């Protein structure tokens, strides 16, 4: 299954909770083949806090050889990376403050790109501009080296995805930067 992108994500099923009856919402983790529109597997878990365990149980059931597995920040664990690489796959893991040392290292890395005295590092930048619905949105993706990726097997580089929105309401502009760093194998 070369080139297959498998998106792993957890969701709480809306409308499944019945607090009056003591029933909590069902939470499940799914593996979705993005290019095919197919769910490859799913596991129920007790709560969102058990999502990491469920991902760890779901990964061995998938044919990962040649696939790229994407997981949001809750799955940014070196054990997940090891399982994916061990199964013959590659990974893209979102990094947020649940991994404070890694997030800090990546912020420092991307914050110093192009600064005076910065050593020349191999990077690439892609930017898109969208206009509509009363706002202008600029999306920028910067690819960089391996800085700060110790402990993540097979890690080849980093991506920094930033979005800058300009909302135009009655002549007023608001700038809302949103940044997200990711490990990329």
UniProtKB/TrEMBL annotation:
Superkingdom field: Bacteria
Annotated spans, Disordered: 136-160
InterPro entries tied to this protein: ISAs1_transpos, Transposase_11-like
Bilayer-spanning residue ranges: none
Name of protein: Transposase, IS4 family
Taxonomic classification: Bacteria, Pseudomonadati, Pseudomonadota, Betaproteobacteria, Burkholderiales
């Amino acid at each position: 299954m070369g080139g297959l992108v498998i998106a792993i994500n957890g969701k709480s099923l809306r409308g499944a909770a019945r607090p009056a009856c003591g029933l909590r919402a069902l939470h499940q983790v799914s593996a979705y083949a993005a290019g095919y529109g197919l769910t490859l597997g799913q596991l129920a878990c007790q709560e969102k806090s058990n999502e990491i365990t469920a991902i760890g149980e779901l990964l061995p059931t998938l044919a990962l050889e040649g696939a790229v597995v994407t997981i949001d920040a809750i799955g940014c664990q070196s054990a997940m990376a090891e399982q994916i690489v061990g199964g013959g796959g590659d990974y893209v893991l979102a990094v947020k403050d649940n991994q404070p040392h890694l997030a800090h290292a990546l912020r420092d890395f991307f914050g110093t790109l192009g600064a005076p005295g910065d050593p020349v590092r191999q990077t690439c930048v892609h930017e898109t501009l969208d206009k509509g619905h009363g706002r202008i949105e600029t999306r920028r993706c910067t690819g960089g080296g391996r800085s700060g990726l110790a402990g993540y097997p097979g890690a080849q580089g980093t991506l920094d995805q930033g979005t800058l929105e300009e909302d135009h309401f009655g002549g007023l502009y608001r700038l809302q930067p949103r940044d997200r760093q990711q490990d990329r194998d």
